[in-house]
Structure prediction request, 379 residues.
Amino acid sequence: MNVNVLKIAALAGDGIGPEVMREAIQVLRVVEKKFNLNLQITEAPVGWAGLDAAGEALPKATLALCKASDAILFGSVGLPDRDPTVPKEKRPERAALLRLRKEFNLYANLRPVKLPAALAHVCPLRPERQGKGIDILVVRELTAGLYFGKPKKTEEVIEAQAGPHQPRRFHRAVDTMVTTTPEIERIAHVAFRAAQTRRHKVTSIDKANVLENGVLWRDVVTQVGKKYPEIALQHMFVDNGAMQLLLRPDQFDVLLCENTFGDILSDEAAALAGSLGMLPSASLGEAQGMKTFGLFEPAGGTAPDIAGKNLANPIAQILSAALMLHYSFGLDDAANAIHQAVAKVIDAGYRTGDIYTAAEPKARKVSTTEMGAAIAAAL
Ligand code: NAD
Prediction:
């Protein structure tokens, strides 16, 4: 047995979280045996489950567990219809997820969007628009830009009017976009390093024709790009990027984006894969030698419409576990084995409801647990 204990905090959260987490842990246990690993997986409540258990969306014990772990495997949090008297700042989306991102300085969000050939029918684009296939890695800056810049406020304005007229009163909302050179440099390095292991292309998204932030972004990304001469760097304005994703998605390999643009384009790219239930994500902090602390979670949320019914697609959570093995532990063989097992099961026709269509002759509609068991068996 490998003596190196890998400590994983498993925070399933709400809605479909516990259902899909169960399947991911089952798959991790198979990987552990197959690759002779020593995984210490500890489960803890978060989200409404945390509020119910300990009165906080991120209970102190859960945060302490995360701090003592090498990686966080996260489900999803938030149930929009639960207790409206709980204020925004105590609700799970802010008090748990944003808090964890801040606590661990998780500045790089990576979302691989891949449409397996067998699932071409779930893509909203016509087959001829899908080109050679969709395989994009969105790299989004997660801690700077428009969402965090100060000042951020809504204020009342009282404007004096000429003559005898009453002053005019109205409100003004202010958000501030701030990005610094070091913030751009570190996320650019993440994108270029990722491209080295893929198809060697980075498309950097900005709005350099209008925004000062865009000008700096373009300059710094260009400078960082010089350190990676084997990677082709292309710059694209965000409005064109949004259009190109729909017109010719196969031109993209790594898509490098500032926070707000990345938020929007990563959801647009996700739609190309047909279902949120297929898409994992990684939020990474600074690398510590060969290891990078990260939080790994499905791109989707708690899916209250299907929660508790054994209908959710567990693949996003299972592939999130694969991203964890790759990024936090450098266990690429184990991560690839999970990818191959998922591909095998998809090729064999296993479909949860979100990716099922009766028009597909070999499709077999399965539950969450059946999909998880099939992937574990394929491993
Ligand atoms: P959602 O992603 O939960 O659901 C959107 C649609 O996608 C639903 O029809 C749902 O059934 C489907 N879907 C999502 N994951 C699926 C899966 N694994 N298998 C099959 N279908 C799946 O988004 P929403 O309904 O806007 O949000 C619900 C709650 O989740 C909200 O409280 C929101 O704040 C929260 N949320 C949390 C996270 C997170 O924890 N990171 C992310 C997004 C949304």
